[in-house]
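Hi support team,

I submitted a single chain yesterday and got back a structure, but I'm not sure I'm reading the token output correctly. Could someone confirm the output below corresponds to the sequence I sent? I've pasted both exactly as they appear in my results page.

Thanks,
R.
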Amino acid sequence: MLTILTLNILLMIVYLSHWDWNLYKSRKDIVSNLNKINFKAICPEGAYSEELRLIYHDHIDWKINRKKTFDLKGVINLKKILNSLEEGSVVHSFTLKTGILYSIANLFGSNNIKGVLSINGLGYLFSNNFKAKFLKLLLRTFIKSSFNKSFKEIIFQNENDKEIFLSFSNYVGKSSLIKGSGIEINNYVKKELYQTKNLKVIFVSRLLIDKGVNEYIELTKNILEPNINFYLAGEIDEGNPNSITEKDLNNIKNENNIKYIGPINVEKELFNYDISIILSKYEGFSRILLESLYVGLFCISNNIPGTKWLKLFNNGLLVENNNLNDISQVINNFSEYDFSKANAEINRDLIKKKYSTKIISDQYNEIYNNLENSSK
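Hi R., thanks for writing in. Yes, this is the structure output for that exact sequence:
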């Protein structure tokens, strides 16, 4: 009889994404916390490839142009990679786009692999963009016919996304809810100085329209107090049709009331700021909101399914429909709010108990164990 240790050695977990950033940013910590032996990363070569080679036991270059909406050569390449995997491997796809590409490549797969999909947010395909609506209409028949074959389980980050997608896709397989991808709490520099003067307000995000970049720029124009400084952190996502352009970014750099600082090391630099602004229109479970709360910032967020859990925490406030007037009032009257280290400590304790990487990894581990046991 095979022992549990032997089974763990035999089971191959493959993390798949059309962007190396997705397998590095948060999944690196999940991989480190899981008790499985064999991990592979399949993604295109990119800025994080060297780090991925240190984290995963193997890294396979998925030659795909992620800047294209659909790259046929990339799908063909993925099909060859999937056919080369060990029998019974678990292929865990991250993001809906990757899941669709995996389903296409797996249509005529020659080995018995088990698919898992993490939908971290419905994203562009379910946005109000006209092109996205047309694309969703084109893809619906394929998704309805292929996802039940391709995936043993789909993981969602909030109930609203789960309900919408299951209704759209007619997926009848197992689905689960895992709130976020967790944070490795020991990696973060905590905020120590709490004050309400000379405020530093920051917006950290990929520079996507649906993340609320334009609303943030408008917000900075509504507040002209000299002791309030606004910062924008992030970079253009060239593979996303919802991204702002280089021209847009250059215009932002020329704004007098905001400082663009590029991408930052959130774990080591976020503590330098006081207020974190989240204006996203769609989120699975906002990671930057969770990070900001843990570090100790005061958080002002748009009230959407992926952020409404903010009401469980201190040092935070939800606003409806990205109401910039309401946000402006909060910032202008910030001294009236209880922004304190004591509140931050309460938040950290709750995050440690419910949203740490260890908690999330345990939930992933249960899914993999169930798939492993089902093949006995």
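A quick pointer for reading it: Residues 65 and 71 are 6 Å apart (CA to CA). Let us know if anything else looks off.

Best,
Support desk
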